[in-house]
Amino acid sequence: MKQLPEPFRIKTVEPIRMTTREYRLRKIKEAGYNTFLLRSEDVYIDLLTDSGTSAMSDAQWAALQMGDEAYAGSRNFYDLEATVQNVYGYRYFVPTHQGRAAEHIMSKLLIKPGDYVPGNMYFTTTRLHQELAGGTFVDVIIDEAHDPTSTHPFKGNVDIAKMQKLVDQVGAEKIPYISYETCVNMAGGQPISIANLKELRAFCDRYGIKIMLDNTRTVENAYFIQQREPGYAHKSIKEIVKEICSYTDGCTCSAKKDGLGNIGGFLAMNDEDFYIAAQAEVVVYEGLHTYGGMSGRDMAALAQGIRESVETDDYIRYRVEQVNYLGTLLSEAGVPHVVPHGGHAIFLDARRIVPHIEQDEFPAQALAAAIYVETGVRTMERGIVSSGRDPKTGQNRHPKLELVRMTIPRRVYTESHLRFAAEGVIELFQQPQRVAGLKFVYEPKQLRFFQARFEPVTAVAETVLK
Ligand code: F0G
């Protein structure tokens, strides 16, 4: 298989450094077998995340020079506001420094203690802010999303019967909104369909429940709709993005992904009262409502990035097909991973790659550590460690999906980088016994995956991860 040629050429390069296996083994031990605790300099190809890791275009770098760093009323704010209104179609815009800040403000304003917040699978920071506001998250994604082998084309869809069940159990007045995510990250970057969203809209209208979009990866989702959903093949990405947003009441967004920003986020909505309340919260936690934690130049680069993400369909086609290229190399070698391939990452199925490791010994965490040692490629765990503990029982949650995410930064790596990463994973896949389970030596209370430290479970494991 060939990768689609990039719709850009390279103007600036950043050197990266290959290290020895011995060096990396020392570094992963120092990092407590947690790839989040490695130094970037010690990584050869960084597939940790697609968040804030995009390469900016020449137009974005030029926009940085046009930063208006006024405390109040920066021209870059008005440009970003107009861009968000134009691309996503919401009436009101409130900037934040990144996505979780928008989630914090929205959760604080919309959730009352004792409420339930359904969602098409959880996202780590999103659920935490719901819980901190006194809410309980309820997963209403279709069952296929929890099955890494199901080839359902829209595994991000909501199961309306699960919504009905929740309404019947707790009452619609206890459900302020559904958190609806495009290209569901924890499911493997799996898209939602317009048909599902329309059906959900009708359902929510019946019960007075809002739909709040997690707009972080809507452009990638629009590409899948264009490719897969009847009636959308001839619509532009720009049109589809706007249509998705039009069925929702507002959104939170981490603009560090689709938006091609290195930092930034926002809330957007159509309801004026919610807008005014959100502006009042922003000044408490983020900064004035005309910068929300971003500098003027950040807002300038972001506005340009958001425009570029939908300006032509070529960019997003290249982007999603590059992810598909990596997935196809792994498919050809029989390495188990989530199918269909998602929009931002390939998710390795640790349950099937290292079946000898019990879930309580963190198979995906161990596999991510081993991939780093063997190849210098940094990936991340998306399984039991990310899932955390149930706040009521204190017990570990045991998600069905136990995954290692190979996340592709936008416009950063070439075909040969991805081939190198795939070859390393394929080699390790052929000797899975090299990977051994881990146990906690330090477990933070919240979002533990970021800072947790581990060690191998047995002395044998030491030699296995050697
Ligand atoms: N929602 C989704 C779907 C996300 O993927 C993220 C971040 C956030 C919200 C939070 O946004 O990081 O700007 O505060 N995802 C990153 C990742 C961290 O690596 O998947 P943030």
UniProtKB/TrEMBL annotation:
The EC number(s) this enzyme carries: 4.1.99.2
EC class of the enzyme, as a word: lyase
Catalytic activity field: L-tyrosine + H2O = phenol + pyruvate + NH4(+)
A single GO BP: tyrosine metabolic process
Cofactor(s) named in the record: pyridoxal 5'-phosphate
Alphabetical list of Pfam families matching this protein: Beta_elim_lyase
Coiled coil: none
Domain Aromatic amino acid beta-eliminating lyase/threonine aldolase: 46-422
Residues modified to N6-(pyridoxal phosphate)lysine: K257
Gene Ontology molecular function terms on file: tyrosine phenol-lyase activity
Keyword terms: Lyase, Pyridoxal phosphate
SUPFAM superfamilies: PLP-dependent transferases (SSF53383)
Family membership noted in the UniProt record: Belongs to the beta-eliminating lyase family.
NCBIfam families per UniProt: PRK13238.1, tyr_phenol_ly
PANTHER family: BETA-ELIMINATING LYASE-LIKE PROTEIN-RELATED, TRYPTOPHANASE
Name this protein carries in UniProt: Tyrosine phenol-lyase
Lineage of the species this protein comes from: Bacteria, candidate division GN15
